[in-house]
Every structure is written in C-alpha cells, then in structure tokens.
DNA sequence: TTCATTTTAGACCGATCGGTCACAAATGAT
DNA sequence: ATCATTTGTGACCGATCGGTCTAAAATGAA
C-alpha cells in the first residue's frame, strides 16, 4: 500500500562509501553525499539516519567485505604462505591502482575517528580481532604445512601481519609505487617464511 | 617603533600543534585554535596566515623535531641495533602514554590530507625521504658493527622500518597496549638483527 | 474514487564555518 | 606631545554546515 522506494539501498551505500572512503568523515558534507548518491536530503535521513549512522553503515559494509576477501584469499591458496603472500601483495597494490590514494577505509577511519568516537573504535577493534583470528588460523596452517616458520607464535604473528598491513596502507597515502610495495610485502613474508 | 608582540610565537605554535595533532585538520576550528592559543582571530591571521598555513607551520615543526629525535636516538646508542631498538620501542609507546590516542602527527596528516593536498604531500614525502636516509645510515652502521644482518639492503631495510613504524602508529590509534607494542618492536628488530 | 501510508523533494532552520576589517592600544622616534 | 607603525580585538561577512519539516507524489486496499 505504501509508495515504493525509488533507490537501491545497496547501491546508495556503495556510493556513500566511495565518498567517505576518499575524503574521510569530516570532509564529506551531506551535500556531497546527496550529489554522490542522487538522493535528496530527506530521503537520506529517512532511509539511513543521520550522517554518522550512514557512515557506520558504510564502514561495517566495508569491513565485512574485507574479512571475506581475506578468508577467500587464504582458502584459495595452495599453502598458507602463498595465501599470505597474495594478501600482502594485494595490500601493496591499491595505492598505485587508484590515483586517488584512498588507501584502506578502515585505516583511514581508525586514524581520523577512533580516538574520539567510542562506537567507531568498538567496530574497528572488533574487526581487528576477527582479522587477527583469521591471520592466526593462517599461521597455524602454515606451521603445519611447513610453509611458515615452525617457531612462530600465532597470536604474535597475527599482530605482526596487522602491523605491516597498516604500514603499507599508510605508505600508499603518500603514493608508494607498486614495485616498492611488493618489495615490502616480500620482506614481510621472508620474516615468517619456513626454512 | 611598532607595538610589540604580546605572545610567544613558539608557544602559540606548540598549542596549535596540540590541537591539530589531537583532532586533525578538518575537525579543528578556528575558534578551537583561538581558545587553545589564547589569541584572538585577527592575531592568528596576522601572525600565522590562514588555517592551512598555520597547519603547515605546526606540521613542519613536528617533522623537524621527529628527525632530530631519530638522529639523537641513533647517535646516542652503543651500536646500530640498540639505537634502532630504542627508536622502535619509542614508537610503540605513545599510544599507552596519552589516553588521547593521538598517535603520530605525520601519519595522521598523511592519512587525512595527503591524498588531496599537494603541498602537504610534498612536505611529508620530503620528510619520509630524510627519515629513510637516517634509517639507511643506521643500517649501514649496523652492518659494519655486526649488530644487524650483513645481507640487508640499506634502502630496502629503511623502507621496511618506515612501514613498521607507520603500522605501530596506526595500531596506537585503536589503543594498542604498551606490552604488545614492544612485542612488535622486538619482532621488527629480530627481522633485521645480526647473527 | 477515496483513503491510509510511505517516499520524495527541497525550502527552511539556527549554528558554525573560515576569513576580513575597522578601530583601539601600545610602542620608539622626533 | 605628536606621529608613524605595528599589534590586538571583536564585530561582522557570506557561505555552508548538519538536520528538520511540510507538502506533493506514488502506491495498494477498500
């Protein structure tokens, strides 16, 4: 009986995400979101809540996708090391790809909002915890299949991987070349590779 | 003959830096800067230019201080590895220290502004280049005095150190504990330590 | 067709944004 | 004491901020 919605919710979230991802939270205005999504202000507020709620929705979406990508990356690989290499190389790439230097939405948000926004902090910490669980599984598998050093401590190694990935994403904001990114990825892998 | 200035320029820059460092560029308003520095709006503009120019002044100041700290850290140490350890540990610490989680002003700025601000990008790239020069010197010294692996490639190792330090700074924004930070610092050192 | 219901559009809101400017205050030189 | 010069102050500017709200449009049910 009601009037049907004219927009596709998923698509709007994608478009809004692109804005937040490229420009951050503070530098993205509601007008920019209206233009990017094609929706009028009223529709955005009715459909997605205020600016902050919309931001969280796009962030959660991004994080879920990131975990999915990591899971796939690890599962599809021949051994743990190959999966890890692929993941590190993927994280060394986006900088060169998009001239936008938008880096990683999660890292951008951690830097901009985490210190003063408890909800964002909770969401990002939860994501970090889940990612490190996946890293741990990968490391354990690598120890078993011999592709990673046998003396690695999985939780410790997971935090190590997290750190290197964050570092690559920051470098990408300054315009790291693909070649140098791959070099660093290789170095990270070497620090954990089996004999 | 003119009326003398009533404020101390260095002190004002310090206070403005604290604001930008904690809240970033966009989230820091001129009113916040007025309150933080105690200067009226007109004085800020007359003395330091507009918001962007003031920001750059505080950033440059921060970067110079950072390079100085690294230089001292390396020179004062008994050997290259000790200096590098000290530097990595210092970078694993600030997170825990200030409940503000303000992290590293350079990393914060790289993430927030570098993609869309050519001047900032130039300043930060120049700083990165200088820092890596210092890292390279440190690595070369470490190869000579035997405290670092002999097969390290200095430019490569310098980028590696940069990456890890960036990663530590991002983790600090989410509230990394001092203990876990030190653990990662140790891991980074191990990846370069001499036999 | 009429009605209840929901979406859409955009005018409108007070607050705040970064930035300017005119004027008062403070100095040393004369 | 007067004057040229520079600093300090805060009122003021138009623009834009995030957010609200009313009214028109679009539907299915009755």
Task: Write up this protein.
The structure is a homodimer of 195-residue chains. With 195 residues, chain A is an all-alpha fold. In chain A, 73% of the residues lie in helices and 0% in strands. Chain A contains 10 helices and no strands. Chain A has helices at 9-23, 30-37, 41-48, 51-76, 80-91, 94-97, 105-112, 118-145, 154-173, 178-190. In chain A, α4 (51-76) runs parallel beside α8 (118-145) and α5 runs antiparallel to α10. Chain A is elongated. The N and C termini of chain A lie far apart (67 Å). The model of chain A has no long low-confidence stretch (mean pLDDT 95). Chain A binds chain B through residues 22-24, 26-27, 100-103, 107-108, 110-112, 114-116, 121, 124-125, 128, 156, 159-160, 162-171, 173-175, 180, 183-184, 187, 190-191, and chain B through 22-24, 26-27, 100-103, 107-108, 110-112, 114-116, 121, 124-125, 128, 156, 159-160, 162-171, 173-175, 180, 183-184, 187, 190-191. Chain B binds a DNA duplex (30 and 30 nucleotides) through α3.
Short description:
The structure is a homodimer of 195-residue chains. In chain A, 73% of the residues lie in helices and 0% in strands.
Strand composition percent of chain A: under 5%
Q: What spatial form of chain A do the alpha-carbon principal axes imply?
A: elongated
Query: What portion of residues of chain A is helical?
Result: over 70%
Question: Biggest sheet of chain A, in brief?
Answer: none
Oligomer: homodimer
Mean pLDDT of chain A: 95
Q: From the helix content, strand content and strand pairing of chain A, which structural class follows? A: mainly alpha
């Amino acid at each position: 009986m009601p009037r049907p919605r004219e927009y596709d919710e998923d698509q709007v979230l994608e478009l809004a995400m692109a804005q937040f991802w490229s420009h951050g939270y503070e530098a993205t205005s509601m007008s920019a979101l209206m233009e990017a999504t094609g929706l009028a202000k009223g529709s955005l507020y009715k459909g997605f809540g205020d600016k902050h709620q919309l931001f969280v929705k796009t962030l959660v979406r991004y994080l879920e996708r990131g975990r999915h990508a990591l899971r796939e990356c690890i599962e599809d690989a021949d051994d743990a090391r190959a999966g890890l290499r692929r993941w590190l190389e993927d994280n060394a790439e986006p900088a060169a790809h998009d001239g936008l230097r938008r880096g990683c939405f999660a890292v951008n948000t951690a830097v901009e909002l985490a210190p003063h926004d408890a909800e964002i902090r909770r969401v990002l910490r939860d994501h970090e915890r889940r990612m490190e669980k996946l890293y741990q599984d990968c490391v354990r598998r690598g120890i078993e299949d011999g592709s990673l050093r046998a003396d690695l401590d999985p939780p410790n190694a997971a935090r190590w991987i997290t750190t290197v990935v964050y570092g690559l994403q920051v470098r990408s904001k300054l315009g790291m070349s693909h070649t140098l990114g791959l070099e660093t990825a290789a170095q990270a892998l070497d620090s954990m590779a089996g004999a």
